[in-house]
Protein: Amino acid/amide ABC transporter membrane protein 2, HAAT family
Organism: Bradyrhizobium canariense
Amino acid sequence: MTALADVGYYSRRQARWRWSEIVFWLAALACAFAFPSRYLIMTDIVRLGLFALSLDLILGYAGIVSLGHAAFFGVGAYAAGLLAVHGIINEPVIALVVAGLAAAVLGFLTSFLVIRGVDLTRLMVTLGIALLLEALAERFSDITGGTDGLQGIEIQPILGFFTFDMFGKTGFFYSLAVLFVLFLLARRIVHSPFGLSLRAIRNNPLRASAIGIPVNRRLIAVYTLAAFYAGIAGALFTQTTALASLDVFSFERSADLMLVLVLGGTGYLYGGLIGAVVFRLLQEVFSSITPQYWQFWIGLVLVVIVLIGRQRLHRWVLWAPNLIVRQLGGRKAIVAVPEGDAP
């Protein structure tokens, strides 16, 4: 009973909202009013953050590596596009959920292949699934539009009231609301006994199996959930851009996702969100300075992060806040957050 009580106390303590989390979401909302001319890029950041969150669920919490996560993103994007083009479901929110469920079905069916292998096998299997879907989308061009993409996508007003505008204002608030709701769900999941069992599986699958955790069923469940999240991100892409092309299945999309998690860190839900902001801002800055070589500079930033270490960077970033806290009241300084905890 003592051990169970300790686990329950730990879970409740980790699930409490921190002031930094509240500040994060208030800052995200404030960006809508601080940068009214940048709705399009902010919407792109929100979509990328949700996409990275989906990968972090399997990589950071279950230890499943993937180089083909764009497969689920693409299925969600095309599902939302086809539903809109053929007028099957006109309500964007319902279409969003249906597109996510379509990606979840694919995730469930392919999870049996993914959980059987080790890291290298999983990389190849997930990459192969994404490449296969891209080839199928190109083959059946009469349905997907082939290299030209889906034509004539018209997204109806959200809930019948909020119309998508060319400046991206509606798309940003819509995407941010979807991200926040799904983040709350993911936060509840990772701090539940289910989430704790995933951490145990990630650390030592054999030991987790020995203490009675159904390893395969847990991995299938979280892989399906991650596919659902990625499908939602893909559907948001189609609904906010009125575009769905073969690019949604591309390897570059999955590779960029890995870079986002390298920048933000894995094993805590804010890693993908912070990484998405940093990645898009770096891309924006470097592409404006040297349009042809922006990838080189992002690669250089990644090398610096690896050489210096994320923990040391955290200490450097928090040096000024710690100094201010000590000067104001001598209260306990802010400490760098270890990987795996919320910011």
